[in-house]
Amino acid sequence: MWTMGLVMSVVGSVVLIATKSRKDLRISAAPLWKTGKNEIGSSGNFFTDIVDDWKNNEEETFKKFDVDRNGLLYRSEFDELVASLLTDPYGSPYQLSEEQKEELFCHADPKMICSPVTKKTFRLLWKNWIRKILSPVTALIIVDVQNDFISGSLALVNSPAGQDGLEVVPVINGLVTEIPFDVVVYTHDWHPANHVSFVDNVALRPLHPNYTKSPDEVQVLDIVHFDDQWGTEQTMWPRHCVQQTWGAKLQENLVVVENPVKIYKGQNPDVDSYSAFFDNSRRDHTELEMELRKRGVTDVYTSGIAYDYCVGFTSLDALDLGFRVTLVEDASRGVVDDSIAAMRTALLDKGAAIVNSTKVADMVSGRDRNARLAQYLMRTIKV
Ligand SMILES: [Zn+2]
């Protein structure tokens, strides 16, 4: 079980400071959500000025950057295009290294030999890269903002990192009420009573002969090795989010939009499911990928509980599936400091962006065109 005394003695004071600074960030940033796209006005940046009317600009764009009018974009011309495309909301270019610029240029060539971009290649690049950057189709995934993780049996505040899950609620409410996502997804951890992850269920299944503890010695956060056909290794948790109980309900102050997508995961008693896409052994999947695909979603924003488990694994799977992924860091809270840091690194290494909620409105509108997401997209598309 969670040991409150240990938590307080080890991390109590640090957590107080961290919590305060996160709140301050959120409060100071709130007015930026009100920055409507039209208030920014003409920036002098080609793509920023066409972002609201990009559809018929393919020809015009090619001509703009084909300075010598030879029907090809050479490296220097393509670099100019990238410098104009990958900019902050005010039209200032994000700084890319030479290696990053070269990678973008070479991936833009279907033969990958870094030759100049022809009009034919540009047509594909316009459709699969530039258009998605200027006009992303966006989904906000709100992961497991449920009572048990906030004030119930698995309340984050009692976990080793001592973070408060309740703090995600106003940040997420700000996102869903201020920003026009194309779809908003609410995921639910949704377990049957005999679920494999509950520490008080450990005696329900045979333990692997090599596992050294007896069922009475097993504690929360132990990784138990079960003797089943899959060789399941399962982190133990307090009983939580049992289907149809108060603990499995969304936190009452969380704003639920009209026509949301709701996803229920972890329903198989024998396998846990951190990701909202797949169970932990990828034996089964939810409807989430289908729901995103049928709406043409290009970009996924993730938030909720817990950063190092369900938010993190949902984000990693979204990347595997080819979506551009942005984790909204101040809209998420985690369980253990070290695993939060490890998840952060894993997400960045795989091509996700990690931002504060104040950045999201301009990213969703196509005015803030994140270089990291552009680079990830170029790697995943077939030009
Ligand atoms: Zn669970």
UniProtKB/TrEMBL annotation:
Pathway(s) per entry: Cofactor biosynthesis; nicotinate biosynthesis; nicotinate from nicotinamide: step 1/1
Region forming the signal peptide: 1-18
The EC number(s) this enzyme carries: 3.5.1.19
Residues covered by the EF-hand domain: 59-88
Keywords annotated in UniProt: Hydrolase, Metal-binding, Pyridine nucleotide biosynthesis, Signal
InterPro entries per UniProt: EF-hand-dom_pair, EF_hand_dom, Isochorismatase-like_dom, Isochorismatase-like_sf, Isochorismatase_Nicotinamidase
CDD domains on file: nicotinamidase
Similarity comment: Belongs to the isochorismatase family.
Protein name from the UniProt record: nicotinamidase
Lineage, broadest ranks: Eukaryota, Metazoa, Ecdysozoa, Scalidophora, Priapulida
Gene this chain is encoded by: LOC106806737
